[in-house]
């Protein structure tokens, strides 16, 4: 494994960092203090035009559909740079949930679906959302879904209640997980169906407050009801009953992207922490960084971020070499390990800033509000730890059901 950067990628990352520093980070203050994405959306539209003109648009997509055509490992490096600000991925059109939706539309979409839904999403003309989690079912077990899609003539009629449908506010369409084959084995009961949000029966109940912030537009998480929502059966994505398998295809690369984004947040938070430790005086001529406990935090953060980065790059390398299934253990390990590193780095950075760290005068509070969920979404830490433990124990002769 060679984790060194090719010279061409090093230049690309430097150029991307310059755009992030010069054009994106200055927008953080307005977004952080209001929590309203709509306040920065017009300015971000201009940044996106600049990104596209510079050839850095959609790093995760192939060149033939307007992207940069990066490998998974290359995109991981880009994702770290963009993760230094909560607005970075959106500025480059590789934000969740749109990036994952682009991937599955490319892989499983019909030609008509690609024309109608993938192409405008790839261009950045519209946004989308992914509607799977339900308030009355465990999010880490998508085989328990209660939302149904029943055939009626040439249509599906969808009934169900979803929440944490991220970015539904203002989205053009949703990809919804619904049970189409209730009598099938658990992992083949659900399908993924494309639902334009203008469809009668698609109703956003509210944007869910997260730590006091409901947000709006792209930066929001919606509670959604599907009330007799009728769409053509032609909107089925992939095969009927393949919803779970498609979701797994979406989650593998997505976890690499998430983890490297978290490392970008760690690096930015660590930078702010070190700057604070070096300049904040606790007595005349005595900076905070002279305290041994703060030095210990700095050393631990540096080591943990470095270890996390190497783990993610190794998982990306294995996924590229042998496929997502072969890298299943590595993907589970990085999901809980990096999420916990993020949690610790953010906590230490806030603590180092004292009362200032609790305010929106730095990006730390916004990072914490949005990213505490890292240990919950895409499978709670405990679920991923169980996956790893079962595989380890199996090698020692103990099969856990």
Helix content: 40-55%
Please tally the β strands and state the result.
11
Q: Give the CATH class of the largest domain.
A: Mainly Alpha
Strand count, sense and barrel status of the largest sheet are:
5 strands, antiparallel
Count of individual domains: 3
Considering the protein shown, what is the CATH homologous superfamily of the largest domain?
A: Butyryl-CoA Dehydrogenase, subunit A, domain 3
Mean pLDDT: 94
Number of helices: 12
Rough shape? globular
Which fold name corresponds to the CATH topology of the largest domain? Butyryl-CoA Dehydrogenase, subunit A, domain 3
- CATH architecture annotation of the largest domain: Up-down Bundle
Structural class: alpha+beta
What is the first-to-last residue Cα distance? 34 Å
Please tell me how large the radius of gyration is. 22 Å
User: What is the succession of H and E elements?
Assistant: HHHHHHHEEEEEEEEEHEEHHHH
Tell me the fraction of residues in β-strands, as a range. Answer: 15-25%
Q: List segments where confidence is low: pLDDT < 50 over at least 5 consecutive residues.
A: none
Based on the model shown, name its key terms:
single chain; about 400 residues; alpha+beta; Butyryl-Coa Dehydrogenase, subunit A, domain 1; Butyryl-CoA Dehydrogenase, subunit A, domain 2; four-stranded mixed β-sheet; 11 strands
């Amino acid at each position: 494994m060679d984790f060194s950067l090719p010279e061409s990628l090093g230049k690309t990352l430097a150029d991307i960092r310059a755009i992030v520093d010069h054009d994106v980070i200055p927008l953080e203050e307005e977004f952080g203090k209001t929590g309203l994405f709509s306040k920065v959306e017009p300015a971000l539209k201009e940044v996106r035009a600049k990104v596209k003109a510079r050839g850095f648009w959609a790093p995760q997509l192939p060149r033939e559909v307007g992207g940069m055509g990066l490998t998974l490992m290359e995109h991981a490096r880009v994702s770290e740079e963009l993760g230094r600000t909560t607005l970075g991925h959106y500025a480059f059109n590789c934000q969740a949930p749109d990036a994952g939706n682009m991937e599955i539309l490319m892989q499983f979409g019909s030609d008509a679906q690609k024309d109608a839904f993938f192409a405008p999403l790839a261009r950045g003309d519209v946004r989308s959302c992914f509607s799977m989690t339900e308030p009355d079912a465990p999010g880490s077990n998508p085989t328990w879904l209660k939302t149904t899609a029943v055939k009626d003539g040439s249509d599906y009629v969808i009934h169900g209640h979803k929440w944490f449908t991220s970015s539904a506010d203002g989205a053009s369409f949703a990809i919804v997980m619904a049970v189409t084959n209730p009598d099938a084995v658990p992992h083949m009961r659900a399908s993924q169906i494309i639902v334009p949000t203008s469809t009668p029966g698609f109703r956003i109940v509210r944007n869910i407050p997260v730590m006091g912030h409901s947000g709006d537009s792209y930066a929001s998480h919606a509670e959604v009801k599907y009330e007799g929502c009728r769409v053509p059966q032609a909107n089925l994505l992939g095969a009927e009953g393949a919803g779970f398998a498609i979701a797994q295809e979406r989650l593998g690369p997505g976890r690499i992207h998430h983890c490297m984004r978290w490392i970008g947040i760690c690096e930015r938070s660590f930078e702010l922490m070190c700057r604070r430790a070096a300049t904040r005086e606790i007595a005349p001529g005595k900076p905070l960084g002279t305290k041994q406990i703060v030095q210990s935090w700095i050393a631990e953060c540096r080591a943990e971020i470095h270890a996390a980065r190497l783990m993610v790059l190794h998982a990306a390398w294995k996924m590229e070499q042998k496929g997502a299934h072969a890298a299943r253990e590595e993907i589970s390990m990085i999901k809980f390990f990096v999420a916990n590193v993020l949690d610790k780095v953010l906590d230490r950075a806030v603590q180092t800033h004292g009362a200032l760290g609790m305010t929106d005068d730095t990006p730390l509070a916004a990072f914490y509000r949005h990213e505490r969920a890292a240990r919950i979404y895409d499978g709670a830490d405990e679920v991923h730890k169980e996956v790893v433990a079962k595989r380890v124990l199996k090698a020692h002769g103990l099969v856990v059901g």
